[in-house]
Structure prediction request, 124 residues.
Amino acid sequence: MERQWNDSQPIYRQLRDRVVALILDGLLNEGDPLPSVRNVAAEYRLNPITVLKAYQELVDEQLVERKRGRGMYINVGARELLMNAERETFLAERWPIVHATIRRLGLRPEELLGVGNKGNKKER
Prediction:
């Protein structure tokens, strides 16, 4: 995980988002344990309460399960749940902007796929 934090949102939220990205990218899989709160706090020089708050959000979203005395684990179906939410967000919020830009610039599908760009060779 990245060690830099920004001022755009609370650190616990950024940490939560980084764990979500690891799940979406397949670097954390269903059944995998999350690093302990103490380890993350020490490694990233964070207050353990900040890490716990990030992890609690993941529990509240049913992405992570707390196993008493054993730690926290990625729930079965967490990646699919996140993928569905990301798809909905993309289609509702980002795609209309991208689509409008494509239309405004008069881009053709071949250009979007890189076939019509100079320097790109058609893959076979």
About this structure: The radius of gyration is 19 Å. The chain has a mean pLDDT of 90.
